[in-house]
């Protein structure tokens, strides 16, 4: 029993590491990895989205700090996007409870396909 618990923690650590790595490279792209992994582990679709956000907030904050610290990014360049980003985050948080899991899955999948095609065609 204790071995299963340790194995579960190691798997969770690995999933977190992959999510953080992808997020650090692609800039919040970790959610594209986290949500499917969390649902595969048995988490309900909406709960997977909520947990992904809760995980990605500190991960993104650490990535942002490192980019600023290493002088790769200027905080002033990002500042103009914060009001819209905060507004969108509040709206998304309020709307997710009103969207069916099936529709949420479709929107998320559609966005992943759109993002993938857009990247390939650039």
Rg estimate, integer Å: 16 Å
Q: Termini separation (Å)?
A: 50 Å
Helices, by number, come to 6
* Silhouette: globular
Overall average pLDDT: 87
Q: Give the strand content.
A: under 5%
The low-confidence parts are none
Secondary-structure element string: HHHHHH
Helix/sheet category: mainly alpha
Helix content: over 70%
What profile does the largest beta sheet have?
A: none
Total number of distinct structural domains: 1
Regarding quaternary structure, what we see is single chain
Count of DSSP strands: 0
Short summary:
The protein has 122 residues and is an all-alpha fold.
Walkthrough of the structure:
With 122 residues, the protein is mostly helical. It has one domain. The protein contains six helices and no strands. Helix 1 (2-26) packs antiparallel against helix 2 and helix 1 crosses helix 3. The longest helix has 25 residues, at 2-26. The model has no long low-confidence stretch (mean pLDDT 87).
């Amino acid at each position: 029993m204790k071995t299963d618990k340790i194995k579960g923690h190691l798997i969770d650590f690995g999933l977190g590491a992959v999510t953080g790595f992808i997020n650090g490279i692609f800039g919040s792209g970790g959610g594209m990895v986290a949500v499917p992994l969390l649902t595969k582990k048995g988490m309900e679709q909406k709960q997977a989205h909520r947990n992904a956000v809760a995980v990605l907030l500190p991960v993104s904050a650490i990535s942002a700090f490192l980019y600023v610290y290493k002088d790769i990014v200027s905080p002033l360049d990002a500042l103009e996007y914060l009001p819209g980003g905060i507004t969108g985050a509040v709206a998304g948080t309020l709307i997710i409870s009103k969207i069916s899991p099936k529709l949420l899955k479709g929107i998320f999948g559609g966005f992943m396909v759109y993002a993938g095609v857009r990247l390939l065609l650039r």
